[in-house]
Amino acid sequence: MSSLHQRAAVSSNGIEPPLSQAVGYVIVLVVGLLIAFGMVFLTRLLKRTVGEDNAKTEMFMTANRSVRTGLTASAVVSSWLWSTAMLGSSIVGYTNGVSGPFWFAAGCSPMIVFFALLGISCKRKIPEAHTLLEIVRIRYGTTAHFVYMFLCLVNNIIACANMLLGASAVITAMTGIHIIAATFLLPVGVALYTFVGGIKATFLTDYMHTFTILIVLCYFTAKAFSIDEIGSIQHLYDLLKAAGQQHPVSGNHDGSYLTMTSKGGIEFGIIHILANFGLVIMDTSFFIKAFSAAPSSVVPGYVVGGIAYFAIPWAIGTLASSICLGLETTSPIFPTYPRRLSTTEVGSGLILPYAFITVAGKGGAGAIAVITFMAVTSTLSAQVIAVSSIISFDIYRTYIRPGATDADVIRWSHYGVIFFALFAAAFSTMLHYVGIDLSWTLYMLGVLTCPGIFPTTFTILWRKQSRVAAIVAPLLGMATGLGVWIGTAHAFSGEISVASTGAVLPCVYGTAASALSPIIYSVIITIVKPENYDWADFKKEKLAFEVEHSTTDIVQSVDTELADSASSVQKSQTLKRWARIAAYWSIATFLGHWVLWPLPMYASHYIFEKGFYVAWLVIGFIWLWITLFIVGFYPIIDGRDQIWAVLKAVRSSRKTAEPDSSANSATVVEVRQDEK
């Protein structure tokens, strides 16, 4: 990040947009509305055929807790397939070389898998919950409820800003539409289909968007080597090696882009894994999706989805950054030739778009605009439904109208969808006008998202954490993190500015302080006055509304192990077994992706040889194509019963309608004959 601010920019205006403004408005408005209306139609079809009524709160917010493993895994991948995932991994690849995309991926998968443990623990201890904040309120009371509400809303706001800043910059660069217009139009379709369809619409839209994005990305991995300027992975290696010799990277071994021994890379890795633990654990949308999944689908869905996701930032970030670094000053087909990318272009996340344009021209520009739009709308929908749930359940139903009916809560959920879509766009606009871009938010967001990591985890897993510790620890942690972040920024640069606070080291120290200090605060406060919470108290409060199971209810079809068991003890044992499996997978994923694989390579000072680089990319591509299968086809295979039930119901309704229409025709003929 420091190199981004130190490098002199030849131009900050970017390239001439390859597409017209009309194309931009079609993508952000027309395509968005078409997808929204498609989701509205699908929602109504599911209601008519299998009884999934989104006018009921349990269906709107938790899909009757019946989502299967395939769709859960797809939704998990989609939840992390931010526009930032594709754009940000390319930024750190361009800045640090091959280590950057790897650390980006390694900073995501371990906590996604770890969330399987939190999700199944919630399923076991408080199965009727809708949000994380309900759990906090029941265990610690009103004050803690407000504290964690603040932490979760900050998390949602900074996450949305991160998405919108990157996506609107890319769509503006590709089409020339005004960046503020893009910022405000992107959430329109999201608000519409989330307003009507709730969490199930989010799941289904996530599936379609993510499937489409992965098809385009997999095509990109093949198309890239069909142009003469690249030709093969071996030639791309030669180009990347030459780029390292021409402009070596400070902090990398021998200045090479082809090494995991990168100071900037590992510093980003530390920031990213801590920040993403905060983004997952303090994001109520992850809890909603866990509550929406069937008990037997939570752990396999999150484990499969977390491991599958790893390939996206790793493979795409490595390929896109290699293309840009290799061709930007050597090939006339590169958009900025003969100059290097400017600081503004890098900070706006334009590495991946420029790689797409290089490989596929205007078609590539159109493709990157569409998949960026799909990525940001898909992840925005999860954030919108999360904030909507806080407004409807944790504010309205808890403090404004405790006796709220099903219809009341749904109405306030709708208010929440509209409010947060507008607020997110307005907040992102404010950040843009004060000079903050995707790169800045990518590095500093952990300072704000991390304070609640361990107090929240302890709330779910550690019965001894006291009420005072749960309230005070995250607030002190945030104060500590902000103080360290701003203090080190001033110490290193002599000023407090966007550039100084976005540099690597202040963000590393601030994020680490924000994430780790609450452990000390919580443990010390708890030792002074420990508590011993009885998990059974969670089940004393009635949280769920009446559930109307659909004709293909997952409880009957998938969770037979749980549903057929008459004994609650047996159910509890089954969920405990899933929790142990989740814990083992969490440890294995962290050790594999963050310790055993990358750290020895960092210590070895190894510079990739041509054969190793080829294997590195090929494995990433294969992993990416497997992810395409998991996201695209596994939900269809896993949900074939419900798909068949819908098709059968549609066919039956048509058969029923045919005799009626023929009878009506016969009646008309008889009447006309009588008239004659």
UniProtKB/TrEMBL annotation:
GO MF terms here are: urea transmembrane transporter activity
For this record, an example GO cellular component is: plasma membrane
Q: Which UniProt keywords apply?
A: Membrane, Transmembrane, Transmembrane helix
Region (Disordered) residue spans: 657-676
Looking up CDD domains in the UniProt record yields: SLC5sbd_DUR3
Q: Where in the cell is it found?
A: Membrane
Top-rank taxon of the source lineage equals Eukaryota
Transmembrane segments annotated in the record for this chain = 22-46, 67-94, 100-120, 146-171, 177-199, 268-288, 308-329, 350-374, 380-400, 412-434, 440-461, 468-488, 508-528, 581-599, 611-634
Q: How does it sit in the membrane?
A: Multi-pass membrane protein
Spell out the InterPro entries in the cross-references.
Answer: DUR, Na/Glc_symporter_sf, Na/solute_symporter
* A matching Pfam family: SSF
UniProt lists the family membership as follows: Belongs to the sodium:solute symporter (SSF) (TC 2.A.21) family.
Q: Per its record, how is this protein called by name?
A: Urea active transporter
Naturally occurring in which organism (per UniProt): Rhizodiscina lignyota
